Description:
Blueprint (H helix, E strand, L loop, with lengths): L24 E4 L9 H10 L4 E7 L13 H11 L4 E7 L3 H10 L4 E5 L6 H10 L3 E6 L17 E5 L15 H16 L6 E5 L4 H10 L3 E4 L10 H12 L5 H11 L2
Parallel strand pairs: 1-8, 2-3, 3-4, 4-5, 5-6, 6-7, 7-8
Helix pairs in contact: 6-7
The chain binds D-xylitol-5-phosphate (DX5) and zinc ion.
The site of zinc ion has 6 residues, from β2.
Amino acid sequence: MHLNSTGQDLRTESPSLYSGAYQVIITPSILTANFCELGKTMDEALAAGINWIHLDVMDGNWVVNRTITFGPALIKSIRERVGPAVFVDCHLMVTNAEENWEQYVDAGVDLVIFHVEAVNDIPALIANLHSRGCQAGAVLNPATDASSILPHLADLDLVLVMSVVPGKGGQSFMAEMEGKTREFRSAIDSQIASGGRATKLMIDGGIKAHNAAQVAEWGIEVAVVGSGLINDKGTIAENLAEIQEALGPEKGSRRMDERESHANR
Length: 265
Ligand code: DX5
Ligand code: ZN
């Protein structure tokens, strides 16, 4: 079981992730961590209440700055360290996700997020992931239109909107992603209202305490936070508390109430 802090199963298709104290799930990106200390960083994150880990895989080819981060071996070690109760996703910034997606499933991730710009046969990749019992997520670059993902929405467990150009942590948030995010929110809400899948909506890049409430209001349910959580300014618990305080229990509640009412029908 993959439970969130309120004991709900993160793997279900129910959109009832909102009834906890904070409606937005915060998941750390580890790119700004000290990789020699990753085990301790994971322990610290879990002790702070984190129950979803976001793992950024870059293959030295796909991102513009040609960075290499890590691959399945490290992910497997992280899975073993955090245990089965934590939800783990991998954000594949690689040229050949259609060839090597299964290595990440074998490493123990719950959700594979692939870049639509790098995949030829999106329905086949989604079907392959689902056939292995793994959730399927699609992500798009700031310059890519929502239309690249919308035709596949009914089969996707998650859509990730990039609010920086992928490649490294610590970049500035692109507020101009608002229109695209709201477009996905509205399409997902319509899908749920007509009895379809409760595709989750996630954002990644430049999220910190100062803009967390802003993206919650856009309809984001899961926010990746890298440099805002893992930094020299405070512990993960302190940084998370600051973000949760900025979010407040009431932020985005009107939208959440609407979606909860769909879920409870
Ligand atoms: C960007 C990655 C991120 C990112 C998040 O290429 O996908 O997950 O590093 O880090 P911050 O929050 O520092 O932008
Ligand atoms: Zn990422």
